[in-house]
Write a structure and sequence with these properties.
about 15% strand, binds 2'-deoxycytidine-5'-monophosphate, alpha/beta
Length: about 240
């Protein structure tokens, strides 16, 4: 296996010496606003941002382009043993490189989303991604988002959030997001896709989507991104 992760946030703010650099996890289902909030929170704090869903999407992309059976864990594990996955962090975005090819713009489609959720149920895939995710957070000062950040990948995190929202609100948020992309979908397709994915992510045997027992639960149904962000910042500031 050859796996390299680059961190490229040269422009990150240096912290005041008395401020401690925390490891912050944000988990929750799709469409809850986690990516936007996590990215903004990281920027506000001068922290690194890690989107672990992008890693699962990178694996899905590789599986799809290799034409192997995504449900065959042996085949997927063998494929990963010769796969190089890199995340390149820029000031405002993350790029995903699979075997040195930048595939970032191919990762948001509904079919890659589904496949990411399918391969994410394989213990071999989760195991392969574990050190990659942890390598990112060796120095603290990071906001990580995903499904199992607070429960499995970083159980020792300093601050844990779990965001949730009414499913219909999540479906329409994702629907609106997709209208700005090339792939215009109708609300029913988005609802069907997200329900399938939610069910699979919540019910899998390994690292299912559940809140950590010590996570702070936040219902974002009736909150704007800025309101959520202000709330999270307040909690984090009290811990620094
Ligand atoms: O966050 P996202 O929608 O980009 O994630 C895509 C899929 O990847 C999601 O449906 C489940 C999987 N995933 C996971 O199982 N664990 C994570 N920590 C992040 C994502």
């Amino acid at each position: 296996m050859s796996t390299i992760i680059r961190k490229g946030q040269e422009s990150r703010q240096r912290p005041e010496s008395h401020v401690c650099r925390l490891l912050i996890t944000i988990d929750g289902p799709a469409g809850v606003g986690k990516s936007t909030v996590a990215k903004k929170l990281a920027a506000r704090l001068g922290y690194t941002y890690l989107d672990t869903g992008a890693l699962y999407r990178g694996v899905a992309w590789k599986v799809r382009s290799s034409n192997i059976d995504p449900g065959n864990s042996d085949q997927v594990a063998e494929l990963l043993s010769t796969t190089k996955l890199e995340l390149a962090a820029h000031e405002h975005a993350l790029s995903v490189l699979v075997d040195a090819q930048d595939v970032t713009h191919e990762l948001r489609s509904l079919d890659v989303s589904q496949l990411a959720s399918t391969v994410a149920a394989l213990p071999q895939v989760r195991h392969w991604l574990l050190p990659i995710q942890r390598n990112f957070a060796t120095e603290g000062g990071i906001v990580v988002e995903g499904r199992d950040m607070g429960t499995k990948v970083f159980p020792e995190a300093d601050v844990k959030f779990f965001l949730d929202a009414d499913p219909e609100i999540r479906f329409s948020r994702r629907y609106r997001e997709l209208q700005t992309d090339d792939q215009r979908k109708n609300l029913d397709d988005v609802r069907r896709e997200m329900t399938l994915r939610d069910d699979r992510d919540r019910s899998r045997d390994v690292s299912p989507l559940i809140p950590a027992t010590d996570a702070m639960m936040i219902d974002t149904s009736n909150l704007s991104i800025d309101q959520v962000l202000d709330h999270l910042t307040e909690v984090v500031s009290a811990r620094q």
